[in-house]
Amino acid sequence: MTGAVRVTGAAMDQPLPKRRRNYPAAAVGVLVLLAGIAAIARLVPRGLRVVEGDIRTATIRREMFRNDIVVRSTAAPLHTVMLAPFESGRVEEVPANDGALVKKGELLFRLSNPQRRLDLVAREADRAQQISNMSNLRVALEAGQTEHQRRMLDLNFALAQADKQNARNLLLGEKGVISASALEESRDRLEKQHQALEDEKTRFAIEVRIKRDGVKQLEQAIERLDAGLQVVDESIEALAVRAPITGRLTDFHLQLGEIVKSEQHVGRIDDPSQIKLASQIF
User: Fold this and answer.
1) Where are the alpha helices (DSSP H) in 112-242?
2) What φ, ψ does residue 84 adopt, rounded to 5°?
3) Phi-psi domain of 99 (left: phi exceeds 0; alpha: psi -120 through 50; beta: other)
4) In degrees to the nearest 10, what's the CA dihedral of 57, 60, 63, 64?
């Protein structure tokens, strides 16, 4: 268009004057802030305030740490032996009383067990029978030796007679007085006597070995019976329960006629010479 004026933004962009920063005011603000923080910090408590006289100090050193606490304890004996019989039975005697001081080896109570008595009688009978068998076998061995000696005398005598007869027959045979068959018979009789003598020696050796083995087996059987008898005797002796140590009898309440089982707790013996303290710490 002719005569129009062109509008631009150049007239709107004008530089502004630079603002001057107020450094002293900023410094005063910072100082006020720090003063407030310091005042607040003084108001906050620092640790626990204590009296100086209540403070104990010591030099730090490396050793075991001890943390002592106060607890309640009960006194108890240091050494205690529990009482329990090895055998079952009926209480027949109770000479000891609960709470009494007993000495080592003192009788506390006695039990009765008929089965143990029957076992003892049966084992003693078996032992007596085996001893009788061994005695009979030894007597037979002695008798066999006597009979063997008698037979040996007879066989040696017969052998000597056969040897003499054979020698005479040899002389007669050289002179032609007896026949060859008679000479052969005498020689056979001599060999038969030799064989009889050797058979007797072999038979007797076998007989002696068998009887001696039998005696040895009976001796071993008697030893086993003796060991069994000892066990039964010990079990019967165990029916009399005695104090294993010297001390005070505690928690002991057996009654006459009461049935007690093997390993049943019937009391204890406390050693009063040494005491321990027992406590629970939670």
Assistant:
1) 114-175, 180-237
2) -155, 125
3) left
4) 40
Task: Write down the pTM of the prediction.
Answer: 0.53
Secondary structure (DSSP) of 77-132: ES-EEEE--SS-EEEEE----TT-EE-TT-EEEEEE-HHHHHHHHHHHHHHHHHHH
Planar angle of CA 145, 149, 153, nearest 5 degrees: 170
Both structure tokens of 58 = 């010591």
Residues 155-209 pLDDT 10s? 899 889 988 888 888 888 777 777 888 888 888 888 999 999 999 999 999 988 9
Q: CB neighbours of 242 closer than 8 A, spacing ≥ 6?
A: 105, 106, 107, 108
Tell me how many degrees the CA angle 102-94-106 measures, rounded to the nearest 5: 30
Q: Nearest to residue 158, comparing CAs of 199, 192, 183?
A: 192
Q: List, in order, residues 6 or more apart from 110 with CB less than 8 Å away.
A: 91, 92, 93, 94, 239, 240, 241
Q: Please give the single-letter amino acid code of residue 66.
A: R
Measured at the CA of 195, the angle between CA 190 and CA 201, to 5 degrees, comes to 130
